[in-house]
Amino acid sequence: MSEHKTVSSGISTLNTDINIAAPDDFYEELIELHRGLSDEQSALVNAKLILLLANHIGDAAVLREAMRAARADAA
Amino acid sequence: MKTYTNPIYLYTRPADLSGSPRHWPVIVAGAGPVGLTAAIDLAQRGIDVLVLDDDNTVSVGSRAICWSKRALEILDRLGCAERIVRKGVEWNVGRIFFRDEQVFDFNLLPESGHHRPAFINLQQYWVEQFLVERLSELSQGELRWQNKVIGITQQTDRVSVRVMTSDGEYTVQADWLIVADGARSPIRGMLGLESEGQVFHDRFLIADIHMKSDFPTERWFWFDPPFHRNQSALLHRQADDVWRIDFQLGWDANPEEEKKHESILPRLKAMLGDKTEFDIEWASVYTFQCRRMRSFRHGHALFAGDAAHLVSPFGARGANSGIQDVDNLVWKLELVLEELAPQSLLDSYDAERTFAADENIRATTRSTDFITPKGQTSRIFRDAVLRLAKRHPFARRLVNAGRLSVPAVLKDSLLNTPDSASFASTTIPGAPAADAPVSGSRGDWLLGYLDQGFTLLAFGTTVPEDAVTALARAPIPVAVVLVGGALAAAGADRIEDRDKLLAARYDAQPGTCYLFRPDEHVCARWRSFDLACVLAAVAHATGQTAAEQEAA
Asked: Model ipTM?
């Protein structure tokens, strides 16, 4: 698995290479997390999940880059 | 069908209808790819085997089309793979499309230095025909068409099978019955057993079409394509310019209506364009299920293939895993029939192949859940993954249009002897043999040197001649193959590691020895040769140490 990418200056960039050891296990757990929830409850769970992960990442530059990537093809 | 005429195999009146019923060591119920593979393996080992099938031909329609590397390696041992490879088409590239654009492509091309490719596509009827022809070459095998099993009685040491023919009924007996009578398994029902699991609430149209086309020999998978909105579609090449096309239809589709050619034609024209000429060879509408029997052994009845476990087809894990079932079973059955191993060895068939079935069910369930998302949130995640996949590599690993069949590594099998030294290779106890290019008197690939029984592969060391003899003469014989360096010992095969890949794949040093089971799985390995260790590992891999411990 690739390490979180850092450039020599120490500024982190968003790692978009696979960084999860067992991707299919993760995806199954992610879908399972929503089992039995209404669409509204799921949206709330997703929002909380994003906030938790964002706080864990912390780095403002990385978060900004992730937000840009997520917004890129919103249409 | 334009490209294939189903052979009609003749029914002949069984002699058993008059006179006393014959006793067989093994009866196989079902002449599909799994039953036929079992019968060939048994007959090739010199065991009399009777195959009963209620039909008089091979599969109607292509059904299973992707034959995996491991299945081909097993069929190589049984003298059947070469025809399949020659007739079939090899493919390595897959492409994933979302809506109107390609998201990414992948190449399954395995590392070089293996005899067989990752996959060969060939219609199931061709494979079955080749297997029938191979079985007919073996004098120990008897195949009776239009002989329908209608009753099973289990006794403590045998099975009685009641068979119906157009000339009346008869009964035959066997020490062991291999049940390979397919997904609906009438015999499973007769024994009051169930296969439990999940039915996916979706329907798929599967069609074989004949067309001359410029499409490359690749697997193309579409999510939500413009020609079939909100559903998935698959295009895959087979032999003789026949193409497999799958259309996801949704749960509300009417199977009878969708099967009609007038319903299929507009779908195909939308996909292939108005100008492409094609003929429909065969079409069917399916619902997919993932389920398995709790145990594959019930007394003297042993279940294999779809009768024992069922998976959705994304990943080619149906027929390929069934062939691996009987590869696992037949050598054990041979040792039990010869009273060289306790009957409890057959419980390891159940343990090892239910483990493999669970792996296949898990993989195909995940694929089906990705392709057919359950609910709004699952669909949003799925579409988010597909949208990210074009630009961001991590998301490609999350796209799941089928995780293609790979053999189970039986790492927790009780038949393995745990490592006593450290190794840095994936060929751990329980793993299937990794092929490699070699040179020697019996061809250019390692797997060609693995015996029908146990084989010891010894690297760069001399196994003393008396040890080679002792292994060859043991009640359960072990063939010895020496790799490079060492002086030839009488009775041992000798090969050279021609591209230095063999030693690398097995992390071998001078002295390293690997012991392979008859199904080519590693069961023990050492850093130096020791006759007593090898004999103990064979006893362990044939259930003898476990039986002794139980008796003690």
From this structure: 0.88
